[in-house]
Structures are given as structure tokens and as C-alpha cells.
Amino acid sequence: MKLSIVSGLNESKSTQDEVLNHFSQLCEFLNSLNYDGIELSLLEPEKINTEKINDIKDSYNFEISAIGTGSTYIRFGYSLGHQSEHIREKAIQRIQNYLDFAQKIQSKVIIGLIRGRFNFESSLKKEKNNIKSSLKECCRLAENNGVLLLFEPINRFEIDSYNTISESVNLIEEIGSKNLKLLIDSFHTYLEEDPGYIWDYLEEITQNVAHIHLADCTRRAPGTGHFDFRTFLNIFKKAGYDGFASIETIMKPSFEDVAKESSEYLRLIL
Ligand code: LER
Ligand code: MN
Fold it and tell me: Domain 2-266 class?
């Protein structure tokens, strides 16, 4: 299993040189800690020079494990489940930009917080229908680009639907696109899943999984809380999962500390 960690590049507010320097420094630092790649959480991927990003990552033999898209909802307010068709279209256009970027740097695109939340003008049923139809369109675009979409079940305190793994598996089956896979996040698994059944259920669905996020039960670095990472990761190892596990935590006391502690702890397990 390969290891990466999430970072942004501040591409919306930086010059091209600043973005490339930042990326270069991240690769250098993470390479020294034995990481295999980096997951990028981006707002405007179209602003980034992909040829130069490729040159830098290739020089470290690094991969960009996935592209996070949640800031499109947080910063622009565009979401796949929005009651307004116009806003849903805006979100889908942004997904096309992420797909173009991912195609050029050989990565995958996450469908997480970009699903949005609904308010009094909508309802759970309407939101789920909107997400479903937007996602079908995103899958068509992903198939055209030859890029995988990663659907992430997210806990109920952050998002209103598709909180559990089984609901998300059912949706993926219903949509039936070969470019739509599952992202399992240990933090959401801890909050949403029944500890009596979850390990058996994960064994059943590992073939659908194309990316993993790791955070402990307090969303701090793996190993600082009481989530059972050994059992969790062993399920994927036994199933022959050779994709990425990516650290996605609150970066405290600092990104550097979390990156170092997490890699030391996880390399004993992975
Ligand atoms: C949010 O809690 C999360 O886990 C992100 O990966 C969502 O895109
Ligand atoms: Mn996550």
C-alpha cells in the first residue's frame, strides 16, 4: 500500500512560481519521510502548469494520489446536490476542470463535500436525486477523460446524505459506471459504521475501493486516538489493495509534525 498526505497549493492566490516552489518543497520533504505521493486539495486546478508539475513529481518518482474538490463547495458554494440546476451545472463544470487536471497528471478526482448540503428549499429526497443525476453526468465526463471518480461516504455532521458505506455502494451500483469507485475514510467509518459489522462488510466491498483516507477518531494523526488501524488496513492488505492510503487530518501542531509522526506509525503497519 502506498502512502500520501493531503496538502493544498494555494493556487488561487499565488503566482505560478510560488505554486511550483511550494509543490517542489512538499515533494522534497515528503520524499525524505518515505511517502510515495501527495494528495492535492485544490480550488482552481486550471491555474496550475501541469507540465511543470509532472516534471517535479517525476523527479521524485512521486504520484499525485488524488485531487480533493471540497473547496468548490466551501469557497464558491457550487454543489452537485443543489436545488438550483444552474448551481449544479456550475459544480459539474468545475468537476470537468478537475478531470482535465487529473488526466494530465494521472490522478483521480474525489466526490466528497462537493455534494453540498440542502436547506429548507430542498429535501433529503430531492437532494439525493440531484446528486444522482449530477453524478451520472460527472461519470460521463470521467469516462471521456479516462479518469476515476472517488465517491466518499462522509459523516452526518458534515453532509446530509450518503453518510454510510453501504448507501454509497448502492449508489455506485445503481449508477454502474466503471469510472466510479469508492473512497473509504477511517474517520467517517469510525463515526458512521457499526463496529460489530464493519470489518466483515469492508471485506466484502474492498474491490470497489480505489482510495483511502486516514485520520484517527479525533481527526488527528493516525495512532493518536483509538481507531483500530491495524485491523482496518489489514483488510485492504489481505485483499491485495495496492492503491494509496492518504493522511487527511487536522494538521496540528503542524503539517510537518503530522507528516512525520503518521509516516513513522503507519510504516509499522502498512
Ligand atoms: C471531509 O470530512 C472529508 O473527509 C473530505 O475527504 C471530503 O472531501
Ligand atoms: Mn476524507
Answer: alpha beta
